[in-house]
Design brief:
Layout lengths: L6 H25 L5 H17 L14 E4 L5 H10 L6 H5 L29 H20 L11 E6 H5 L1 H13 L4 E7 L2 E2 L2 E2 L8 H8 L2 E6 L3 H11 L7 E6 L14 H4 L4 H10 L11 H31 L1 H12 L6 H7 L8 H15 L3 E5 L3 H4 L18 E3 L4 H13 L3 E7 L3 H14 L4 E5 L17 H6 L5 E3 L4 H13 L5 E4 L24 E4 L6 E5 L2 H15 L4 E5 L3 H5 L3 H8 L6 E4 L8 H4 L4 E3 L10 H7 L4 H11 L5
Parallel strand pairs: 1-2, 2-3, 3-7, 6-7, 8-9, 8-10, 10-11, 11-13, 12-13, 15-16, 15-17, 17-18
Antiparallel strand pairs: 4-5, 14-16
Length: 671
């Protein structure tokens, strides 16, 4: 399929695309660093998309019904920056000229909303594809919740530009598989099929039929010449039709198109072309020799397109006004969602949802989710095929299924990495989204978690089966290093609650948080109930670490997290009966604790006491920060074993008797 364009239209499109090529290669050259090849190859279809089909508003970059453009091939960032500059976003020419420099808004790879118009942080290949699936899913969820038969508040599409590298990465495959299953017809992936990677031709390692794979996932696919304006326009016309399947447009292009020597070379992927090659390229493309030059006709066309889109933007504003008048309750819910407005009594609601008695924190979490879902209508989530174990189903809601997006329960299948990337897209869509799996499989999600933290997105991760005490599944499923590995990610709250009230408080903090993600580490096994009348209330979790039982002049400070707080309570009872002054502390979230004032931290850790002990079923690395280099760190610095939890506790020294003995052996003067 193709659209017949006049010779004048084709000539103007080529001038604009060549302008993008020049800006891109010059930005990379000035920085002496970057990737000129993809922007030069993708310029024709990227321009056609923005000039004719993409709906956006530089005057209101966060317009809720804008189409989303995701550059999954983040190494081609100068393509996106050039487009944002040309179409009037807050990105001046000086920013293109300071590409990759300190203080610039044009980072080496696009970062979420820096500058406005960057829909998601990309760089690690495949992540943008997963984010795009999440954005498209978010669009479908919004349509199901808010659209009315005569008032389609949301009908935006998600366009994603992906490279060969994106299509190789497993995270993209996981996400695309789910997108095909769900029938996300509002998703379009423009696959820049240039046949080149860093090491050379894709024939070195990537000879599969990409279109065939996506078709097997349930996608519609097209194949076009990515430099033929008529074929590009025809494919994009089709992309904007109503569809019930996601669409892959395979755009066959030449990397570094227009460069006499660099075209179709691996070197053009990730290195500046050099001044001589740039001059030769400009001559070949009939472009002026002036650096960072934008022809007036291109500026005029961009301004004209923005004006055209402003009319569409105003039409939507009128539709929104009518919607607010005719459906005030739904509009109010939308406004609350946009503001992230939570009930004032959220904490109380969540605490009230906790059943009495001992239980596993995963089950306490399942009870809290029901109350959270009632309090936060835009809370959605699910599990990587482990909902019965993770306790993540919203019982009052249906499941999201192909053609039916009215539910709130998501089924990600056994796709942890894809789930993580999709959660980021859902968060970017305005939803409070959670995803669940066993903690040991957090490693499969780590790049997505890291990008959420970097982007200040707020998904919630529910990681159950959080220690060797999951038992018989053995060391392949028993997280040992994962607690500390997650804590190593900046801006990620890692919460390991000790009982029901702490679980409720952890959920309260996670729901309130808007500047980063939160991981909840939850037990498979039941934990003893903490007597909150005798010991401090669970609201202390808001400080990250707090004193459960204070001692005026402690002989010993005992710090514990999660399931080991119950064990520490037993140790506390034994040592106090033996006449020792013990300060007992719960440390559910070290990141929150680090944010507290120094005086508060000192009141918990008691640096005036030289005997401090940490107790956690995980590696001991990192606890020296809190107990000191001479402190005692009780944990497990080796892999677990397959056996019942009680046996593992005995064999690995997680019993009251064993812990007391270790403390006595470490500090014999306390006898």
């Amino acid at each position: 399929m193709r659209v017949v364009l006049t010779e004048e239209e084709i000539a103007k499109a080529r001038v604009a695309a060549n302008t993008i090529r020049c800006l891109s290669m010059e930005g990379v050259e000035k920085a002496k660093s970057g990737h000129p090849g993809l922007p030069m190859g993708a310029a024709d279809y990227a321009w056609m998309l923005w000039d004719r089909y993409l709906r956006f508003s530089p005057q209101d970059p966060s317009w809720p019904n804008r189409d989303r453009f995701v550059l999954s091939a983040g190494h081609g960032s100068m393509l996106l920056y050039s487009l944002l500059h040309l179409f009037g976003y807050e990105l001046g020419m000086e920013e293109l000229q300071s590409f990759r420099q300190w203080g610039s808004r044009t980072a080496g790879h696009p970062e979420y909303w820096r500058p406005p118009g960057v829909e998601t942080t990309t760089g690690p290949l495949g992540q943008g594809v997963g984010n795009a699936v999440g954005l498209a899913l978010g669009g479908k969820l919004l349509q199901a919740r808010f659209n009315q038969p005569d008032l389609p508040l949301f009908d935006y599409r998600v366009f994603c530009l992906a490279s060969d590298g994106d299509m190789m990465e497993g995270v993209a495959s996981e996400a695309c598989s789910l997108a095909g299953h769900l029938g996300l017809g509002n998703l379009v992936v423009l696959y820049d099929d240039n046949g080149i990677t860093i090491e050379g031709s894709t024939e070195l390692a990537f000879t599969e039929d990409v279109r065939g794979r996506l078709e097997a996932y349930g996608w519609e696919t097209l194949d076009i010449d990515g430099h033929d304006c008529g074929e590009i326009a025809g494919a994009l016309e089709h992309a904007c039709c109503d569809r019930d399947r996601p669409l892959l447009i395979s755009c066959r292009t030449h990397i570094a198109f227009g460069a006499p020597e660099a075209v179709d070379t691996a070197e053009a992927h990730g290195a500046p072309l050099g001044e001589e090659e740039i001059a030769a390229t400009k001559a070949a493309l009939n472009c002026p020799a002036e650096e960072f030059f934008v022809p007036e006709e291109v500026r005029e066309r961009c301004a004209q397109r923005v004006a055209e889109l402003q009319e569409e933007y105003q039409r939507w504003q009128k539709l929104a006004e009518e919607y607010e008048c005719r459906h005030p309750e739904l509009w109010a819910e939308w406004e609350r969602m946009c503001a992230g407005e939570l009930p004032e009594d959220l904490e109380g609601r969540l605490l009230a949802a906790i059943p009495t008695g001992s239980n596993a924190t995963r089950k306490f979490s399942g009870a809290v989710i029901q109350a959270a879902a009632e309090a936060v209508p835009w809370l959605v989530g699910g599990s990587a095929d482990l909902a019965p174990s993770n306790n993540t189903m919203i019982k009052t809601s249906s499941s999201v299924r192909p053609g039916d997006f009215s539910g709130r329960n998501l089924h990600f299948g056994v796709r942890e990495h894809g789930m993580g990337a999709i959660l980021n897209g859902l968060a970017e869509s305005g939803f409070k989204a959670y995803g669940a799996t066993f903690e040991v499989f957090a490693d499969y999600m780590r790049p997505s978690i890291r990008l959420a933290a970097l982007s200040e997105l707020d998904p919630i991760y529910i990681f159950t089966h959080d220690s060797i005490f999951l038992g018989e599944d053995g060391p392949t499923h028993q997280p040992i290093e994962q607690h500390m590995a997650l804590r190593a990610i900046p801006n990620l709250y890692v919460m390991r609650p000790a009982d029901g009230p702490e679980t409720a408080m952890a959920w309260a903090v996670a729901l309130e948080r808007t500047t980063g993600p939160t991981a909840l580490l939850l037990t498979r096994q039941s934990l003893p109930e903490i007597d909150r009348e005798r010991f401090a209330p669970a609201q202390g979790l808001r400080q990250g670490g707090y004193v459960l039982a204070a001692a005026e002049k402690p002989d010993l400070v005992l710090l514990a997290t999660g399931s080991e707080v119950g064990l520490a309570l037993g140790v506390y009872e034994e040592l106090t009966q033996q006449g020792l002054q013990v300060q007992l502390c719960s440390m559910p979230c070290l990141e929150l604790f680090e944010e507290q004032a120094e005086d508060y931290q000192r009141s918990v850790l008691r640096p005036d006491c030289s005997r401090r002990v940490s107790l956690e079923a995980g590696i001991t690395q990192g606890w020296e920060r809190y107990v000191g280099e001479s402190g005692l760190r009780i944990g497990i610095d080796h892999f677990g074993a397959s056996a019942p939890a009680k046996v593992l506790a005995e064999k690995f020294g997680f019993t009251i008797e064993a812990v007391v003995e270790k403390i006595r052996a470490w500090a014999p003067e306390l006898r």
